[in-house]
Amino acid sequence: MADTTLSPVDESHISPIERRDSLEKHLQTRPDPQDLKDRNILLDTNAAPALQSAAFELERQRATDNLKKGLGKRPEREDLIERNILPDSKAAPALQGQQKELQKHMRANSLEQKIQNRPKPEELVKEGILEANENPVNE
Prior knowledge:
Blueprint: H1 16-28, H2 33-38, H3 49-72, H4 77-82, H5 93-116, H6 121-126
């Protein structure tokens, strides 16, 4: 059998004066309506309370429709890549910066290697690419 004893209820009566003083104290510390609107507790509207919910839903639906319309006009990924707005990369966005740096260093290394392996002016004269009186170093 379950214990059916209830916790004791405070049945002491508050005098009407104490009740009035308590209510006045709470009303004095009550935040003003503008503060409640700023904190999004009260809706900032002049509509009747019965219509506030419908007005809120209409505003939400309007924002949803505008978002869908904007997303519908959004260019495709391929168009953005073609216009060099998005990088043509399959890497994760967090890694794309490092990928770009790596490509930059690889390009610099490739250019440096090609410069080191280019033919001397004497070889170019011998092959008939340069004339004997031409010196590309002095120009």
